[in-house]
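Deadline looming. Please check this record:
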Amino acid sequence: MRIIAIDYGNKRIGIAMTDKEKKLALPFKTIESGKNLQSTVNILIISLKEYLKETELILIGYPLLFSGKISEMAKKVEEFKRILEKTINIPIILLDERLTSAQADRRLKEMELTRKKRSKFIDTTAALILLEGYLNSASLQL
């Protein structure tokens, strides 16, 4: 069974997932957000359709402020999660994503990609970092 990680954004959503054995975190794709949260959920479901049957958990990046307080974007992510939960029957966890975008940008800079190319991969890379962090913490608990 897979785990899927989502980096939600107002314009784009980055998606990463594990292999079926949950040993590897892999970038999947970036999709464009819809006009509203419901249409965004619909787009996401269509993009993941062939993988949802083999998914046991979905992680969504939770953009808290550095102080730990809930941001306006975090409230939007909470609503996105509620709509997604009504649509699919897979457990969903919100994970603190502070600094994942900065880590993603740094990782892509190390690959010496231009700013334009980095912007193409930043969302998926952020989702990948979120997923890697979850897998690392889960393996530490074993």
